[in-house]
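Quarterly update from the structural biology core.
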Amino acid sequence: MDGKLIVPTNWDLDLLRRVAPLRPAYLYGSLAAEASMRTMLELPEVTERQIGDFVERARKHDIKLLYVMNATCTGNREMSEEGRWEALQRCQWMVEVGFAGIVLANPLLMEVVKKHFPDLELHVSLLASVDEPRKAIFFRDLGAAVIHLDPIVARDFRRLRAIRSAVDCRLSVVVNEGCLLHCPIRAYHANVISHSLDSIKGRYHVDYCYYKCAAQKITDRTELLRIPWIRPEDTRVYLEEGIDHLKIAGREKMGGGPSSHSSWIARTAEAYYKGRCKDVAELLVGIDGIRSLCGASIEQPDIHIDSGKLDGFLRFFAEGRCDMNCTRCRYCDAWADKAVRIDGDADGYVEQLESSLEGVRLGSYWTGAPQ
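Predicted structure, tokenized:
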């Protein structure tokens, strides 16, 4: 597994020490205020100098760093003189600090970066939604070094194989996805987070999408199996199919400070490096509890996905027998009955989520960072 993992970083030097023996290909992260798929409320506050020190130390372990700027929408700032200058200045800093590459979802910014900074590796974000060969060819032709595939491809092996045969750049799949399969509000969520800096500063930021999806995952436990995550035990299947990298999500695990959740990141990376785990739910993002609109913690039921009871689960997908139409198939339902357990007051949790959602609908909330 050496050189295969792509691991999130919270810029904690102790984390670097713990993951270095796993020999990841890359670590990735950003400044908290950078427009990306994580809000400044979820990321640790670090300085450019701290990041520069981290990159230098990582280089001594032969670990490359990626800087994340994968906002799906910037309000067209990339077309303005000021916005273009800001992006180019950020790229110049990356080069000076020693970043190997940049993760982007915006195609215009991809072209701008490749023109002015050709030595920076271009990594196409999974939020570019590359899920079929023609999209992959488009981004390869823009100069992509690595395409991070749309998570849906992890369970659609026909598409995965077609993409692999269409392009010669490296391909990556995210292994611990926690978002709903075919989530109907995924694109909206990405745009909400892309503009979250303004809403947080304006004290009106609220993650409506998380409230909405969290309830669905608890109400129907089969949704937890439909999510296109990959068991550590099954990663070899993807490597044999020609996937080059296995990306671990989890930058949002870091809002408690630079050392927050270092243990979770290290444990998750080790599970995928060794190819085994007991409970898949412990590795996933997007299934954590959430606070109510008034800031109080909502007690979430404990979710367990027994990895040992899922031997053979992936074969159905690898053999191309899944048509992604969950309305007429109960394959995942049968496996969920065996492997998924939800302990706690699920009904009470959903009621609290619905109460917060009603507050969003009515506009009776006031959130964000203090003035």
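Confidence is low (pLDDT under 50) at residues 367-371.
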